[in-house]
Description:
Elements: H1 13-16, E1 33-34, H2 39-42, E2 50-51, E3 54-60, H3 67-77, E4 82-86, H4 94-99, E5 107-111, H5 115-128, E6 131-137, H6 143-153, E7 159-165, E8 177-184, E9 187-194, E10 204-207, H7 214-217, E11 227-228, H8 233-236
Parallel strand pairs: 3-7, 3-8, 4-5, 4-6, 5-11, 6-7
Antiparallel strand pairs: 1-2, 8-9, 9-10
Amino acid sequence: MLSTQSHAVRATPETLHPSLWLASQLAHADTRCIDTGHAALSSQLPGGGWPTGTMTDLMLQQPGIGEMRLLRPALAHCAERRIVLLQPPHPPQALALAALGLDPAHLLWLRSSRSADALWAAEQVLRSGSCGALLFWANHVRSDSLRRLHLAAQAGETLFFMLRPLAAAQDASPAPLRLALRPAAGGLHIDFLKRRGPQRDAPLFLPLTPPLLQRHASLDRPVFTPVTARGLQPELVQ
């Protein structure tokens, strides 16, 4: 007499659907990721880097605490295409950019007196697919506007960062990755507010090399004349 024995096969969540993962593990990235250039940080991010084609929220205790040094390796990776700085808190300085290893000729500075125009410009940059990265500084953005930007980002593979005040961490956001940045001696403390993976309660200390020529950067003239938001379209088709 023949006997049969069934063997249960344990399926992992990712084999059922790529959007599923165990609560104890980082999710598999569903978009292309760019290495952060900081091994300790990359190991804490789904896909091992900054995701493209989506929104990443960076909440700053205050501007100028090291966020550009944090993003420098990824921006250098995108430098073959235009890098857009939208509404930065201070005019970009050529000397400071050179100290970070970024060529000012590859950067486009946009500013607007109206938040609606700035949001329009961000959406055009994301949908055009012609830029490698977009950094958008904004103090307050409505939730419906954030959703529009998130959808626009999904139209391409632009590296997209929203840089907002730390208080905005209390607001809802469609961004799958949200980090809070606080200054620390020799670097940054990074809190993981939201990521596709396990909750991390302790902040990550990330050492950052002090910028060269930091003392002299404020003496340099702005790198270029800003383009107004509504004058953006000709820049994107160049």
